[in-house]
Amino acid sequence: MGGYAIESPVTYDRYRDVDIVFLTKDGYRIELVSPRGKESVVGKLITRIGNSPYHICYEVDNLDETVDTLRHEGYVICSERNVAPALDNREAIFMINHNVGMIELVEKVE
């Protein structure tokens, strides 16, 4: 797989109806997401835009503060706040900005 190492087992995310696995290479970590059905959010995205990267994930110290800051900078929440099963059930939320695209915010482990 192009020199990437599998970092995690495949995890099912029931909130988004997808399977997730993480790969690493040269200090970079990527998340591969596979929809279980066409009705999952990711399934709908793939149908509309094709199979390509669609968001970047950021770890943040305080999810609520970061969401408030980004809302003032023009981002809008595009998904409910849920746990991320593939990330040790940490809190996560997706936001979008028409100039930047979609981002995922995940609260850091303390």
Structure commentary:
This protein is an alpha+beta fold. It has two domains: 1-53, 2,3-Dihydroxybiphenyl 1,2-Dioxygenase, domain 1, CATH 3.10.180.10; 54-110, 2,3-Dihydroxybiphenyl 1,2-Dioxygenase, domain 1 (Roll). 17% of the residues lie in helices and 43% in strands. It has two helices and nine strands. It has helices at 41-49, 63-72, and strands spanning 5-6, 11-13, 18-25, 28-35, 55-60, 76-77, 82-84, 90-97, 101-107. Strands 5, 6, 7, 8 and 9 form a five-stranded mixed β-sheet that branches. Strands 1, 2, 3 and 4 form a four-stranded antiparallel β-sheet that branches. A hairpin with a 3-residue loop joins strand 8 and strand 9 (101-107). The chain is globular and about 40 Å long. The model has no long low-confidence stretch (mean pLDDT 88).
Please provide a brief summary of the model:
The chain is built from two helices and nine strands.
Strand content: 35-45%
The CATH architecture designation of the largest domain is Roll
Q: Structural class of the secondary elements?
A: alpha+beta
CATH homology-level superfamily of the largest domain: 2,3-Dihydroxybiphenyl 1,2-Dioxygenase, domain 1
**What is the CATH T-level topology of the largest domain?**
2,3-Dihydroxybiphenyl 1,2-Dioxygenase, domain 1
- Number of structural domains: 2
- In the CATH scheme, the class of the largest domain would be Alpha Beta
Identify the overall geometry: globular
Number of strands: 9
The count of helical stretches stands at 2
Determine the N-to-C terminus distance.
33 Å
Major sheet size, sense and barrel closure: 5 strands, mixed
Helical amount among residues, as a percent range? 10-25%
Report mean pLDDT, rounded to a whole number: 88
State the order of secondary-structure elements, H for helix, E for strand: EEEEHEHEEEE
Rg, rounded, reads 14 Å
Low-confidence stretches: none
